[in-house]
Amino acid sequence: MTIHTGRLLAGSALTAMLVAVATPAFAQTPAPGAAPGATEANTAEEVVVTGTLFRRTSTETPSPVTVLTSDNLMKQGITNVNEAIRSVSADSAGSISTGFQNGFSGGGAAVSLRGLGVSSTLVLVDGLRSTNFPLNDDGHNAYVDLNSIPFSLIDRVEVLKDGASSTYGADAIGGVVNLILKKHFNGLIGNVEGGVTQQGDGGHQRVSLTAGWGDYESQGFNVFLNGEFQHDGAVRSRGFPYNSWDLSSIGGRDLNTYDSSLTTQTVNAMVTRVSQSDLNNPLSGMVGSPLTNQYQLLNPAACMNGFFTVTTGGAQGTGCKHDLAREFSTILPDQNRWALDGRISIRLSDNVEAYLTGMYSHSGVFNVGRGAAAPNGNPGPNVIRATQPFGGSPNVASSNPGIVLPVYICSSGVNCATAADRSLNPNNPFAAAYASNPSQGAARIYYQFGDIPFNFTRKNELYRFTGGFNGTLADSWEWRVEGVYARDNFQITDRGYININNLLAAINTGSYNFVNPSMNSSAVRHAISPDRTTASNSSLASIDASISHTFFDLPGGPLQVSVGGQVRRETLTNNNRNYDLSYYTLTTSSAFGKHTVSAAFFEVDAPVTKQLDISLSGRYDHYSEGFGHFSPKIGAKFAPIKEVALRGTYSKGFRAPTFAESGPRSQYAGCSTFNPPAGFVAAHGGSSNVYATAYSLCQGLNGNPNLKPELSRSFTAGAIVQPVSWFSLTADYYNVKKTRVIVSGPLLGAAKNAYFTGATSAAGCAAVAAVGAGYSCNLVDAVDPLFPNALPRVLIINAPFVNSASLVTEGIDVTATANIRLADDVKWTSRLEVTDIFRYNLTPGAGQPVQKYVGTMGPYELSSGAGTPKWRGNWQNTLEYGRYTLTATAFYTSHIKQVAADEGASAALSCAADNLYGTGDAYCYAKRFITVNLNGSVRVNDKFTLYGNIGNVLGAKAPIVPESYSGVNYLPTWHMAGVVGRTFQMGANFKF
Asked: Alpha-carbon distance 968 to 368, whole Å?
């Protein structure tokens, strides 16, 4: 199938790549009388284009639609749905990259059209919904995991870059991605490919095979079975600066505070002497100031990377240097995918057709370490907590901060203060000196469990079945009835998290060796950190029906009307991975819900004249929660002359609250980097004291059943010009406004700032509560051991989900294509496509200042904090010579300013005051990024094709982004190719 990229079709970055390998569509001349941009290739077949209910011979609807074909994607080195769709230039803020392993949906991938978020982009399969991934991103954003969709089964991908609630209902505010699967196949077709990075890791293998029987046109039936397997090996490490939070050697900051500080955690355990109020409870240490400011390593001989000393604030001691990002972080996880799919198609009569499909898809992700973390946000193994974060858990009192090693241990682990078998603690260097006064000889410990692997295994199984009938009545009535059932079974096994009670028992018995962790047995490590496996699931069952009729002819063609309805049932069970609060730092997010949605819809297509076509559509959705919404849309296409056409749409839509946002049993806790204000820093002795540097501040949220749907208004306008047959230009402007936007604590920034105005934690928490209903302090950190009388840090702030914000975004897509026949068998195609975002502004709530995101890392709290680049684009050049094709495609992402309006920045968003990295003009901008891919193919014969691809052929390096929390000094969403480096792939296609 050729690429349908006529003049009325807004382009995309991927479409540009697709031309590289096989299609002559751009060189063809429009058929006589065809609409502008139509060709003989795309007038030969009627298809139902995403965003409309009618079959048509062209994808040139009033809305911009990009069409990508699987054949060309494969030849370009694209090996999964995620890579294909996320390369579309309309993908922007909130997009989820597989490289963001540290997020809620680590290893998952999703698209965010127009930057409106993954939950405002609807993903369909053959025009029907599929179930969402059971684990919500950021604890509340629902999406379809693109990594779970089998790539070899896809015939084409249609990306509608316009609001489409009038056709599909909720969530289609930013646009629609429609994955069109193969319908009929007779014969045998397969693909084998392999690849590797220039560094020798990231091995890639992919095999697919499709076997079909029955000629549908002549025999009236077709059956095919498809299977595929794909493995992508982990990319574990790259060189500086993508493996270190210490950029001091190139003028940056050293943010290795979690591994090189005397007052926080370290892989080599260090202690300071404190008091212990309860000799049997390791959580009762250091109530008040430490007894000494002297810190010491338990085993200096184990320090392999050198030492450092600290004298700040009166503290004395020696620490062990580490760079945990280098030692523990990874870039891409190890992934396995396999799928088995099939379809039966039967022509029951001349006017009735039926089909049945089945799909099983398995996606396995093994995170071999820690993907990344915010600076100062534990980029390595888990830590011994200085503060108990879960008040109310069994035998734990949150009012007793600090974990200590007692003077005495005993085999029973309880009543060690008086037990007959007690002995001096070999892990406590103060034990002998304070044997007679054990309450004064406890050792407060700072430690990360470097000997316990920290990773997760994620298994996702998607089952999807569809079936349907369609036909015609009296030649002018077309009808269809389709059903779909999908279930997503998700299981995640977390490793390396520390079990609170087991740790306390290990401390009291002395079973864990903190002096020399290499001596610990696997049984001891497993006891402290038992694997935690959690299962979740989601499901969808839906029945859709519609009927279309051609009533009469207008001057421009037949008047068509379609009406239909849908009933669907959706459920979600996203279980709490830390339901019993027994683990340190393991997420407590969970979501539960179920509802039934009933809908009725219509569409009218009226070709008023040969030059003017008007479409009108609308849909009403009713939710069993008690709310409903009507979504209208009107579109027009006007071609005054053959060389020029205009198009535009106006629509209204909505996004229903996700189960995580509205479920009464749903809850969420998420953390992000926070820079304390100057007054707090000064009170703690300055920024050289790690207690006063950036740290992870969390927010806790509960589902709000009173939430209302988000509402949207969308407007698009396009102009298409083709002055000569070999050149075309399209420009599509969009403007989207969302109201009643659901946000997690719109006054969270104000609440953070309010806390730090207090002189004490009580005064600070009172200030938080005064910000608004639902705001409160959940947990305050232990006091600063160097400045015990200064205000302690707040660790968790409770904030509500509410309908309070409004958002406006606008921009333009421009595509220019030139097709030049250099000789009879030589053709050159050049295609330039760019997206420019004019505005992306959020107003958090009434009376709140506007947050402007374009060109910055805002919205920093959304998904991977990758920001909103103003420009994205590509330039593709293809040379075709007989059986040979060579393509070079350059991709461009503009610079990104390291400021974020949703992080309490000033209205000016200046580098001096608002640089998230805290270095003023230095490292304030992530430089623009350009990478080039090279692809070549040779058609050996009609049945066999060889191809090869070099990714990032020029070896471009990713810009340095020190404040990224999704990658170590880089943004995986936009810059991953510049971290991985050159990649090489070779493959072969065969068909019989």
From this structure: 16
Q: What distance in Å separates the CA atoms of residue 37 and residue 7, rounded to the nearest whole number? A: 4
Contact 744, 701 (CB under 8 A): yes
Domain residues for 65? 13-237+332-370+457-495+532-662+708-741+804-991
Nearest alpha carbon to residue 840 among 861, 826, 855, 821: 855
Q: Which amino acid is at 725?
A: S
- Mention every residue, 6+ apart, whose C-beta is less than 8 A from residue 219: none
CA dihedral 95, 100, 101, 106 (to 10 degrees): 0
- Phi-psi category of 192—alpha, beta or left, where left has phi over 0 and alpha has psi -120 to 50? beta
501 within some domain: no
Answer yes or no: is 503 within a domain: no
- Give the pLDDT band (50/70/90) at residue 512: very high
Q: Is 1 contained in some domain? A: no
Provide the token pair at 74: 């494969």
pLDDT of residue 16: 31
Q: How many residues does the chain have?
A: 992
Residues 6+ apart with CB under 8 A from 728: 6, 7, 37, 720, 721, 722, 816, 817
Cβ within 8 Å of residue 136, ≥6 positions away: 104, 105, 142, 574, 589, 591, 658, 660, 668
Q: Helices 761-771 and 748-755: crossing angle, nearest 10°? A: 160
Query: Cβ neighbours of residue 218 under 8 Å, at least 6 residues apart?
Result: none
- Residue 646, pLDDT score: 95
Q: How confident is the model at residue 101 (pLDDT cuts 50, 70, 90)?
A: low
Element at 360 (helix H, strand E):
strand 352-367
Judged against a pLDDT cut of 90, whether residue 904 lies above it is answered with no
Strand 294-297, strand 316-320: pairing: parallel
**Residue closest to 335 by CA, chosen among 441, 418, 411, 234:** 234
Instruction: Answer yes or no: are the C-beta atoms of 704 and 802 closer than 8 Å.
Output: yes
Which of 422, 454, 486 represents a domain boundary (last residue)?
454
Helix (H) or strand (E) holding 10: none
Q: How confident is the model at residue 566 (pLDDT cuts 50, 70, 90)?
A: very high
Which of 800, 748, 747, 755 lies closest to 779, judged by CA? 755
Residue 144 tokens, joined: 């379809």
Note the Cα 463 to chain centre separation in Å. 22
Non-local CB neighbours of 768 within 8 Å, separated by 6+ positions? 751, 754, 755, 775, 776, 777, 794, 797
**Residues β-bridged to residue 121:** 175
Which residues are CB-contacts of 582 (< 8 A; sequence separation ≥ 6)? 393, 499, 500, 501
Q: Which of 905, 662, 614 is nearest to 803 (CA)?
A: 662
Residue 489 sits in the same domain as residue 619: yes
Do 794 and 765 form a contact (C-beta atoms < 8 A)?
A: yes
Residues 907 and 942 in one domain: yes
* Domain's final residue, options 454, 474, 509: 454
- In this structure, is residue 509 part of a structural domain? no
pLDDT at 312: 54
Highest-pLDDT range among 360-369, 481-490, 933-942: 481-490
Of all residues in the chain, the percent with pLDDT exceeding 70 is 88
Of 114-128, 784-798, 903-917, the one with minimum mean pLDDT is 784-798
As a whole number of angstroms, the distance between CA 298 and CA 307 comes to 13
Q: Number of folded domains in the chain?
A: 3
Number of alpha carbons in the 13 Å side-chain half-sphere of residue 135: 27
Share of the chain above pLDDT 90, in %: 55
Report the alpha-carbon distance of residue 560 to residue 969 in Å, rounded. Answer: 55
Torsion of the alpha carbons at 406, 409, 413 and 418, rounded to the nearest 10: -90
* Paired residues of 319 in beta bridges: 308
**Which residue type sits at 509?**
T
Same domain? 898 vs 930: yes
Is the alpha carbon torsion for 135, 141, 144, 148 positive or negative?
negative
Taking the CA atoms of residue 905, residue 909, residue 912 and residue 918 in that order, the dihedral angle to the nearest 10 degrees is: 50
